[in-house]
Write a structure and sequence with these properties.
CATH topology of the largest domain: Hemopexin
Protein name: Chromosome 13 SCAF14566, whole genome shotgun sequence
Number of helices: 7
InterPro entries: Hemopexin-like_dom, Hemopexin-like_dom_sf, Hemopexin-like_repeat, Hemopexin_CS, M10A_MMP, MetalloPept_cat_dom_sf, Pept_M10_metallopeptidase, Pept_M10A
Distance between the termini: 45 Å
Keywords: Calcium, Disulfide bond, Extracellular matrix, Hydrolase, Metal-binding, Metalloprotease, Protease, Repeat, Secreted, Signal, Zinc, Zymogen
Number of domains: 3
Cofactor: Ca(2+); Zn(2+)
Main location: secreted
Length: 553
């Protein structure tokens, strides 16, 4: 239930300096906030009505953004985002590969058109359908791509099967902006006369509202309310709350043009026969045109066009984003889950994060859920797949005391709530709240044990018991509880275990936990110190081979 509150925006990330009492107070406040949003009795406790609301089918987007948690003022009526389409003519495509057989392709396409028409009636917007053909030319793609998918499907939000999250959409913008995804595993229905199943039309109208710039509404009668609520779709009309919200973004529709009055002119018979169609004669003395020359041969693909093999190692950086491992190299990246590379990877960085360059140096997920990418003396700030306005910016703008020339590795360290930056043979401890490094930093990397200079990635194990540092084709494991350092060889493989030494990667459903949700032997606000410990080296091994371990004292 804590994960639900975090996922949908009610419970912020707790800091490492927060006591258990403060953490409990924050949880009660989050529950109260959720109860007010859904117009439940405000108790601050997980009573039966609150738990029942959490288990209802719903949209996968959050109800509140981090900025909404700054005050407790109740949001009323519709809510608009700062994102909108900068044009009135919007294109869309529907990928038909996984449309459920219970719906059928034709009925599904008609339903999507009908859902778009609901928004077209109340705005100046017009929509045009484009054929859904794969294209490497970004300009040829539609503004809004709609598809059905199961589980992981290429973005940061996994589908969870029947019930739960029904669909999600991205707010307007480049790249994945506007794209709308439906969970193919739901029991979808159309024009149902009962509450059985999930009506595709109702969900499509809701998600396309997001794709055009609307957030969730607290009005339970609005189509933009987050929880799914069945209603008759015959003669369906948008709620006034939905109409006002969309018109606040795009204005009302233009008034219809009056039809000019015309007096029909009767045809006057001429008495002449209709002209006979004639075919111009073909001249036999004119030779046929010469055949067209063959097209020029395609230029050879550049080496960077060839996807790299993850088995080669030597990555630019390795990090965890939304609980999944991301591995970057050149202009490509992989996603790794349960020590296995996901299908259809590597993928070009520019396809997923539009505006992000190749050869990035470091990346990490910030305490507020935003992604930060570093390259040379610049950084980019992303909200999911969308770069925020005004980026990139120089490193000196990130905070006081941050290394200004290059950052090799960055990690938000959950055991104490600080962010650590590594550059060369030194590291800095950064306070996300004050936006500054601590005064007694930088310090030598040796305080973390035998980690290398300029590490190329760092991430925590699923239980935050270990910190892993990556460089070249090896990783170093730091025991956060016992201060042990263990060096092991990393042997990536997309077909078997991604790493022979098997550094743990988190499960798909893992969400960050409050540091106070478990005991930690690390003093609050401290950084690792060098302590004596045994060092174990694991040899790289093939799958199904016994592991050999040598222990040095």
């Amino acid at each position: 239930l804590k994960a639900w509150l975090r996922r949908f925006g009610y419970l912020p990330q707790a800091s490492g300096q927060m006591s258990a009492m403060q953490s409990a107070q924050m949880l009660a406040k989050a529950i109260s906030r959720m109860q007010r949003y859904y117009r439940l009795e405000v108790t601050g406790e997980l009573d039966a009505a609150t738990v029942a609301a959490m288990h209802q089918p719903r949209c996968g987007l959050p109800d509140l953004l981090p900025s909404d948690l700054d005050g407790d003022a109740r949001r009323k009526r519709y809510v608009t985002t700062a994102q909108r389409w900068d044009k009135d003519h919007i294109t869309y495509s529907i990928l038909t590969q996984q449309i459920p057989s219970s719906l059928g392709e034709r009925r599904t396409l008609d339903t999507i058109r009908k859902a778009l028409d609901m928004w077209q009636r109340v705005t100046p917007l017009t929509f045009k359908e484009l054929p859904a053909v794969p294209s490497s030319n970004q300009s040829a793609l539609a503004d809004i791509m709609l598809l059905f998918a199961s589980g992981f499907h290429g973005d940061m939000s996994l589908f969870d099967g029947p019930g739960g999250s029904l669909a999600h959409a991205f707010y307007p913008g480049p790249g994945m902006g506007g794209d709308t995804h439906f969970d193919a595993d739901e029991h979808w229905t159309l024009d149902s006369q009962s509450e059985e199943g999930i009506d595709l039309f109702l969900v499509a109208v809701h998600e396309l509202g997001h794709a055009l710039g609307l957030e969730h509404s607290e009005n339970p009668s609005a189509v933009m309310a987050p929880l799914y609520r069945w209603r008759h779709t015959h003669n369906f009309t948008l709620h006034e709350d939905d109409v006002q919200g969309m018109q606040d973004i795009y204005a009302p529709p233009p008034p219809p043009e009056p039809r000019p009055r015309t007096t029909p002119v009767p045809a006057v018979p001429t008495g002449l026969p209709d002209p006979e169609p004639t075919t111009p004669p073909v001249r036999k003395d004119v030779p046929p045109p010469p055949p067209r020359p063959p097209p020029p041969p395609r230029p050879p693909r550049l080496p960077d066009d060839q996807p790299p093999d993850i088995c080669d190692g030597d990555f630019d950086t390795v990090t965890l984003l939304r609980g999944e491992m991301f591995v970057f190299k050149g202009r490509w990246f992989w996603r790794v889950r349960s020590n296995r590379v996901l299908d259809n990877y590597p993928m070009p960085i520019s396809v997923f994060w539009v505006g992000l360059p190749s050869d990035i140096d470091a990346a990490y997920e910030r305490h507020d859920g935003k992604f930060v990418f570093f390259k040379d003396d610049q950084f980019w700030l992303f909200r999911e797949a969308d770069v925020l306005p005004g980026y990139p910016q120089p490193l000196r703008a990130y905070g006081n005391g941050v290394p200004v020339h290059k950052i090799d590795t960055a990690i938000w360290w959950e055991p104490n709530g600080y962010t650590y930056f590594f550059s060369g043979d030194r590291y800095w401890r950064f306070n996300e709240q004050t936006r500054s490094t601590d005064s007694d930093f930088p310090k030598p990397n040796s305080r973390w044990g035998r980690i290398p200079d300029s590490p190329k990635g760092a991430f925590l194990s699923d239980d935050s018991a270990f910190t892993y540092f990556y460089h070249g084709s090896s990783y170093w494991r730091f025991d956060n509880r016992r201060w042990r350092r263990i060096r092991a060889t990393l042997v990536p493989s997309s077909r078997t275990s991604w790493a022979a030494a098997e550094p743990p990667t988190p499960s798909p459903t893992r969400r960050r936990r409050s540091p106070n949700s478990r005991r930690s032997s690390l003093p609050t606000g401290t950084d690792p110190e060098t302590r004596p410990g045994r060092e174990t080296r694991r040899k790289a091994r093939l799958p199904n081979q016994p592991e050999t371990t040598k222990t040095k004292r």
